[in-house]
Amino acid sequence: MSAMSGDSGGAGEGTVRAGRRTVQVHRPRKVLFPDTASGPGSELTKADLVEHYRSIARHMLPELKGRPLMLERYPDGLGGPRFMQKNIPGNYPRWARQAEMAKKGGTVTHPVCDDTATLVFLADQATITFHRWLSQADRPDFPDRLVFDLDPADDDFEAVRAAALLLHGLLDELSLPAMAMTTGSKGLHVIVRLDRSTPFDDVRAFAMDVARVLAARDPDRLTTEQRTDARAGRLYLDVQRNAYAQTAVAPFSVRPKEGAPVATPISWDQVKDPAVTARRWTVTNVLEQARTRPWSDIPTRGRALGPARRRLDALR
Fold it and tell me: Rounded to an integer, what distance in angstroms lies between the CA atom of residue 34 and that of residue 72?
């Protein structure tokens, strides 16, 4: 790997320069994603994973900074056990930020990724996917992101595309700028930036009411039913992530699936493109997509929900 120096043997170590720090990478040739249908040589090693996160850092870090994280780790690769880790690893460096967050009966000390060196360190821990809180550590009860997770009954992105465009239209009616992101799995996240003035309970209630209005506009294809057996093949409008300590996959995170697909920000023109699917971008091509800055036309300043709530109530 071009950014790595030192011993690259399977049992050896290497180093990566990340900002002002040099980060050690252990067993860089450890295969995390085995050969796929693409044929021999298509495996993804830890060195490849580290390089993905190092190279995408300038685009990914603004979406991670200040947020408690949950790490999805595969120390032995995709064929081994999965660990969903909230607490910081035992060897977490002193220079990396952490946040002690309240939970029922105690606290959890989460990693917080504010710089490239931390991102590279966590990739060396075989973190395949980063799951982020929807609020920041300094104001954890007041989210700055609202997420609609469009979850199809089958691997049917046409249903996702139609639902996303319908939701985008409704959010336009509410004067809420929205962003779209492929999940790297089956669906799409539609994300709204908030101003951190509304607590989680009210945000989730608002999101649920939006979902209900949307489902009422297309009841044959959309549902808010949480029970799978009650959905009758319809796409589920999931808003349950909008709660304290709940997480959503972070933009530019790799997903633990064949081909190493990546959760990727896209423009609304790309949502309409029939060539775009949930797994369109992978570690091999996502950097080119990131450089197009697909969310650049969305205001960076978060919106208050009060005016949108009044508009929504008038529609119901």
Answer: 18
Burial status of residue 106 (CB atoms within 10 A of its CB: 0-12, 13-18, 19 or more) = exposed
The answer to whether the CB of 68 falls within 8 A of the CB of 133 is yes
Query: For residue 148, which of 203, 195, 84 has the smallest C-alpha distance?
Result: 203
The widest CA-to-CA distance across the chain, in whole angstroms, is 64
Tell whether the torsion through CA atoms of 210, 65, 303 and 266 is positive or negative. Answer: negative
Distance between first and last Cα of the chain: 56
pTM: 0.94
pLDDT tens digits, one per residue of 32-60: 999 765 555 579 999 999 999 999 999 99
Cα–Cα distance between 13 and 277 in angstroms, integer? 37
Query: Residue 300, class by beta-carbon neighbours within 10 Å (0-12 exposed, 13-18 middle, 19+ buried)?
Result: exposed
